[in-house]
Design a protein that fits this description.
Helices cover 38% and strands 26% of the residues. By secondary structure, the chain is of the alpha+beta class.
């Protein structure tokens, strides 16, 4: 590897090595190792092939998160056992998110039975200190530590951002794993400050050392590193069993990037003059990964053609959401809603002169019609995405990441304003 890239070792941990890439400022190489450990290396073994398995798992997980809209340090794969990442100064906290009570939580909380379900999620943090077995910390301890990484002071705002991001990341991966009938029980992640952008991003790795996975919610079928922790004796045969579990996860995690459930949005505009409004809807739909078709038809001037177009999209079996774009008197939405069982969204292009009057044709519906009305093209696409997200996790995760990013942008804007005021 040293012959391929100009490297300087920055750090070495239990399961990976970090190298500075001299030819790529602001980037590092994360090299996995064929080592598996438990109990802060009280137990440590070589497991041939683990580096490649872990690297494959991390690559797929980060790809899913990045395509959803989560900011991560992952840049690109380099080899079977290494990837390129943005260089970060790591925040020495493990953020643990739990859906089901098990493991160390039960020891620290006697009386809680294994299997207790946390709704909302249980969030904990642990200071990375091997000598003291990674003690649990409170938010107050983290804030009072007055950490500063890459020039960013870690205060209440930054703690809140990591808190929210941890929950969102867990929910995204939980949703994805549910498509494989696999329960994400708990998970640990780490954040760093990007040395170039000075922002907090998800860093380190997320592999089969990072979580507990129970197929069908059954602990006896667990596929994660807990299998290794539970070994009474480590033998070559036992390590092969552990390796097969890790390989199972690495294969399944690739399926998280796929969805068998497809759908589309069909935008019907009453006039070609509404094309700009409709193009905005299409652009927003594509940002969620939803195909979008634009058609021109008038329910007033050509109702037979409108119903023919409707039947065309009903007849091929593809789940469809219709969006009706009609100014003045909106006949499209009500006619479509009265003649299809598919969802219909009104998104009229309101004008300044008659908009206040025209909107009533989209709001006052006869009984038996269920079309809803939104005015923003982005909102129409978002509502369609929420419908498809019920059965398509790849759409849902984009919605969830968008919620997080909106919250973070507001939080940072408030912080900036408060700093200016002070």
């Amino acid at each position: 590897m040293a012959a391929e890239l100009k490297l300087v070792k920055l750090n070495e941990g239990k399961t990976k090595e970090i190298y500075e890439l001299l030819d790529r400022p602001g980037h590092v190489l994360v090299q996995s190792k064929d080592q598996i450990t438990a109990g802060n290396t009280v137990r440590r073994d070589q497991m041939e092939g683990k580096a490649a398995i872990s690297n494959k798992t991390t690559g797929c997980v980060f790809k899913l998160l990045q395509e959803a809209g989560i900011k991560t340090a992952f840049v690109e794969p380099h080899s079977a056992t290494a990837f390129v990442a943005a260089r970060c100064e790591m925040i020495p906290i493990e953020w643990v998110c739990r859906r089901i009570a098990t493991g160390s939580f039960l020891k620290r909380n006697p009386g809680v039975k294994e299997g207790y379900r946390f709704s909302p999620l249980k969030l904990e943090m642990f200071f990375k200190d091997d000598a003291n077995n990674d003690p649990q910390w409170s938010e107050e301890q983290l804030i009072e530590a007055k950490f500063c990484f890459a020039g960013l002071n870690i205060g209440q705002c930054e703690v809140d951002v990591m808190n929210r991001a941890t929950v969102a990341i867990f929910e995204i991966l939980e949703k994805a794993w549910s498509t494989q009938d696999c329960t994400l029980v708990d998970m640990k992640i780490e954040f760093g400050v990007n040395v170039t952008t000075k922002e907090i991003i998800l860093a380190d790795v997320i592999d089969n050392d990072s979580w507990r996975l129970w197929p069908s919610g059954d602990r006896s079928q667990q596929k994660d590193k807990q299998v290794y922790r539970d070994l009474k004796e480590v033998t070559p045969e036992a390590l092969q069993v552990v390796k097969r579990h890790f390989e199972w996860v690495a294969e399944r995690v690739q399926l998280l990037l796929e969805s068998k459930n497809t759908g589309r949005v069909v935008v019907l505009m009453g006039s070609a003059s509404d094309i700009d409004h409709c193009e905005k809807i299409k652009k927003a739909c594509l940002s969620y990964g939803i195909p979008c078709v634009l058609r021109v038809t008038s329910a007033h001037k050509g109702p037979d053609e409108t119903l023919r177009i409707k039947a065309e999209y009903e007849g091929d079996g593809v789940p469809t959401v219709f969006v009706a774009v009609a100014g003045r008197s909106n006949g499209l939405g009500p006619v479509m809603s009265g003649n299809t069982a598919y969802p219909v969204i009104n998104c009229p292009p309101i004008t300044a002169d008659w908009g206040a009057q025209d909107i009533w044709s989209s709001l006052r519906m006869p009984s038996g019609l269920g079309c809803t009305t939104v005015l923003s093209p982005d909102a129409a696409a978002q509502f369609a995405a929420q419908i498809f997200g019920l059965n398509n996790h790849l759409v849902w995760v984009k919605l969830r990441a968008s919620m997080l990013n909106t919250w973070i942008s507001l939080k940072l804007a408030d912080k900036k304003l408060q700093e200016c005021t002070l």
